[in-house]
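[job 0412] stage=fold_complex status=start
inputs:
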Amino acid sequence: MYTAADLRKGLKIAIDNEPYIITHFDFAKPGKGQALYRTKLKNMITGSTLDRTYRSGETFEPAQLEDRKMQYLYKEDDHYCFMDNTTYEQIHISEDAMGDAKNYLIDNLPVDVLLFREKAIGVEVPNFVNLRVVQTDPWVKGDTSGSDSKPATVETGYVLRVPPFIEEGELITIDTRTGEYSTRVKG
Amino acid sequence: MPGSWPLARRSQALAQRGAIFNRIRMFFHEKGYLEVETPFRIPAPAPEAQIDAIPSDGWFLQTSPELCMKRLLAAGYPRIFQICRCWRDGERGSRHLSEFTMLEWYRAQADYQVLMAETEELVRAAAGSESTDYRGHKIDLSPPWERITVRDAFRRYTDTTAEAALADGSFDELMVERIEPHLGLTRPTFIYDYPAICSALARLKASDPTVAERFELYIGGLEIANAFSELIDPIEQRTRFEAEAAERAAQGKRTYPMPEKFLAALSGMPEAAGIALGLDRLVMVLINADSIDDVVAFTTEEL
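[job 0412] stage=fold_complex status=done
writing structure:
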């Protein structure tokens, strides 16, 4: 059981027996007034969204989901293929159900596949993944534009902002929870 | 393996924040205010129903320096200000940090109208310019700013009244969802004369005791400051604190000891007005930051 104070982005709760993930969360409180928890919820099966505001004191059931440890194999058309490491069973997941996870998929990446009533509805990747930069503009020494970041494309095609000193071919760590650059992998 | 990138990326915002703080201190020194420091850890915070203090070894981290600063007023300090950390349990969002920076100032022989004018001056001094761009709004800082009563705001932006909303428990929700987003978009807005029940430490208005002499400042839809003409009647203050404490107990919240030294000092306190201004949020509107996380060196989650 969760309370309103436990709500946060990424939490999965059950509403009318269906799993929802909180896609946006914010806390609001007028001066001297009552705390309000504003959420956007996405139905993890249908993809439909809800806007809900909750007050402190309200409670929520966790979504009934099963996690299975799998690894990424390959992409075929608009499906992604994963394999269960213990049973060697393979499953396909549609691009729609992948969400942001598809930005981080490299061969053999270990993931948690989420199942609701035996059906795969989503994928969770590790919090940090290492990906190689395949394109970024060189850093011009003495650049006085004041810019403290520049765009870079990594091997999965994902584009993010990185510090100016990152060069093509380097391996970087990305925080998959925010989609942001975290650190450079040395060596 | 968290990197230092999110910290380094804020260097420009932190430099702007520092400059704003310097201008604020200059402003108060030029106006004859004394900068004071009161303890962060206190035995008894104000027992307000909706503000939760974090316990600290039997005492509490302050939710505001209000009670200690008023004791200084009662002791004869006529103009004081403080820039300090405050803590509020469970408050975290894109506009909230549970540890945040407050600017509070108190002025003897003044009321909330005087503070509205002084707040206009302070924010303009802090900005160092006559306008600011915040979230797509060009906000004109030249005085006078917009002033609207809470009753008129409900009339203008909702289909109910402030009184009806209080009675059915929807006051706070309407304030957040329907009213706040309109406030302070072209110039800063003072919303004032709050229902008496929403103001545990404010003086009631002599000409209309159903409202308290309290205002809030909004810039770009963001709540920046809360102020009032101070209640200086110790008996009335004790009655209100008892009602707030009873409300806390009814909600199953942590209760606090009664701040007896503050109540004792109130009988010697002059007529005064005081204001609490959220400095992190002021920096947000002056440097056009989307999240409060963008204007502090560290968030709790990064520690």
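[job 0412] summary: The mean pLDDT of chain A is 90.
[job 0412] exit 0
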